[in-house]
Amino acid sequence: MARTVFCQKLQKEAPGLDFQLYPGEVGEKIFNNISKEAWQQWQHKQTMLINEKHLNMMDPEHRTLLEEQMVGFLFEGKEVEIEGYRPPDKK
């Protein structure tokens, strides 16, 4: 049976992650309080951030920035803002 959590991002009961995907206390908080659906939303935003800001995951400052954005997006209701980014026009 699938594990469910009350997702803090989506504010509803939803299937939880299968295992802890992020290390440390933040990872434990994500595992216990974030659904697969919300994590997929974050993965999309994370990819955009890395690509648009040319982040290098070997740089500790870039990893810190990404973690701050992740916590804001998943737990504080903040939207990921990418300066100068315009979504493509839908046709």
UniProtKB/TrEMBL annotation:
GO MF, one annotated term: iron ion binding
Gene3D superfamilies hit by this protein: Fe(II) trafficking protein YggX
Keywords tagged on the record: Iron
InterPro entries tied to this protein: Fe_traffick_prot_YggX (IPR007457), Fe_traffick_prot_YggX_sf (IPR036766)
One Pfam short name: Iron_traffic
GO biological process, one term: cellular response to oxidative stress
Highest taxon listed in the record's lineage: Bacteria
Entry similarity comment: Belongs to the Fe(2+)-trafficking protein family.
Protein name in UniProt: Probable Fe(2+)-trafficking protein
Source species of the chain: Pseudoalteromonas holothuriae
